[in-house]
Amino acid sequence: MKKEEDGTFLGKVVFQPESYQSTYEITFFSKRGRDWDYSLHFTEQSGNEEEMLALDERIEQDDEWFDTLLDAALNELEKNEALEQSE
The whole model's pTM is what? Predict the structure, then answer.
């Protein structure tokens, strides 16, 4: 995750949920760090489209799961900021 000079946030998480065949990448974007948009992609090669649609629906419906993925991206932002401050 990076915070751009204009205040927008852009980050991604690569993950493979249990019982899913493909590995996915979710990209997060926010203008101010409050309301988040996302995009879901296959990481390696195209996979089962029905599986991806089911995963997308799960992300849409399960706020806790969405927050877990977003937190993983935000944790990287915190690590990067801490690294920059220590230099």
Answer: 0.85
Domain ranges of the chain: 2-86
Return the amino acid letter for 50.
Answer: E
Q: How far is CA 81 from CA 7, 31, 36, in A?
A: 14, 18, 20
Q: How far apart are CA 37 and CA 46, in angstroms?
A: 22
Name the 3-class secondary structure at 81. helix
Confidence of residue 83 (pLDDT cuts 50, 70, 90): low
Residues 6+ apart with CB under 8 A from 30: 8, 9, 36, 37
Q: How confident is the model at residue 77 (pLDDT cuts 50, 70, 90)?
A: confident
Strand order in the sheet with 37-42: 2-3, 9-15, 24-30, 37-42
